[in-house]
Amino acid sequence: MNPETDYRESTPSQLSNKDILPVLEMLVLSLDLTLIHTISLDFQMLLLSAEFSKMQFQSGEGCNGVCIMSTTWKDEQHPSFISFISSFLTENSFRLNFVSIAPDFIFNCGGVSVAFIFVASWDSGCTESIFSRIQKLKEQFAHFYVVVTLPTKDQNDYFIRSYFKHGMEFGRPTFIPVQDLEMGFEKIVKIAHARGVCKKHDAIAKLKTEREKSVQSMDVYVKVVTSIPGIDSHDAIALNQAIGSIEAIAKASKEHIVENTDLSTEKAETITRFFRDPKYYLGIKLK
């Protein structure tokens, strides 16, 4: 979006409970990166559960929090964009203050502070200063995000190269690329407010508990499946992803296993015999 765009014609949108979902998904991925491809959580079901059902946005019913905007960042923006930000925050029950601060924004929501750098205009000539600033601020804030406006493919490609060139560590901090300024600020508010809601209801601790339960269940699953002769942990994970539960594996045909996994025909036959041939599973010694 062009920085000269007049944002005063835009209609600020209200946050809703559905805005919590993508943020929870983003946050939980950082809990255990080694398991994100093998263990998943049903976030929709979590939000409908008794523990999460009370997580509500307060828009229209009081103050959701305080947004502190850097005076330096404000002076660099077009007045109409600042007007849009002010309207958006008012619509979603946030107070706005202008203060000389190191990040571009600090949100105080539900007892948690969330800091942001908002790169409103990506300039390839300023990458050194941008990443140097990010490196300093990530050590100062427990909850820190970087939103970068990248409207073109060339800018996005250059940003990716710069990200790796400057040795950024995945998730420290989390970068959120957006196509325009309006989208970028909406992302900032959603992340900050979802963080506050999660803090208020101890949602992250609940997600960690769910993750631990999933890990324990997976450990048991792998131990059972690898007790089949010739089946290793890789095979067990492949079966979990493609076939499902141990009961489903027991019912699956050899052809179905071969078609949906990378297991060999020999291994698939071993599995089907293990579950269906008493002479086979009673005559072997489990590992």
Write a concise synopsis of the structure shown.
It comes from Salvia splendens (Scarlet sage). By secondary structure, the chain is of the alpha/beta class.
Evaluate the radius of gyration: 25 Å
| Weakly predicted, low-confidence segments | 1-10, 28-60
Strand segment count? 6
What share of the residues does DSSP label as strand, in percent?
A: 5-15%
Main β-sheet: number of strands, strand sense, barrel status?
6 strands, mixed
Structural class: alpha/beta
| Strand arrangement across the biggest beta sheet | 2-1-3-4-5-6
What's the average pLDDT? 78
SSE order: HHEHHEEEHEHEHHHHHHH
Count of separate DSSP helical elements: 13
Give the total of domains: 2
Oligomeric status: single chain
Q: How much helicity do the residues have?
A: 40-55%
Q: What is the CATH top level name of the largest domain? A: Alpha Beta
Shape verdict: elongated
Remind me, CATH topology of the largest domain? Rossmann fold
State the distance separating the first and last CA atoms.
Answer: 61 Å
What is the annotated CATH architecture of the largest domain?
3-Layer(aba) Sandwich
Write a structural description.
InterPro entries: PTD (IPR039172), RuvA_2-like (IPR010994). Pfam families: HHH_5. This is Protein PARTING DANCERS. It is a single chain. It contains 13 helices and six strands. It is α/β, with parallel strands linked by helices and 287 residues long. It folds into two domains: 7-204, Rossmann fold (3-Layer(aba) Sandwich); 226-281, DNA polymerase, domain 1. Strands 2-1-3-4-5-6 form a six-stranded mixed beta sheet, sandwiched between helices. Strand 5, helix 6 (153-165) and strand 6 form a beta-alpha-beta unit. Helix 8 (203-225) crosses helix 9 (233-242) and helix 11 crosses helix 12 (265-276). The relative contact order is 0.13. Mean pLDDT is 78; it is low at 1-10 and 28-60.
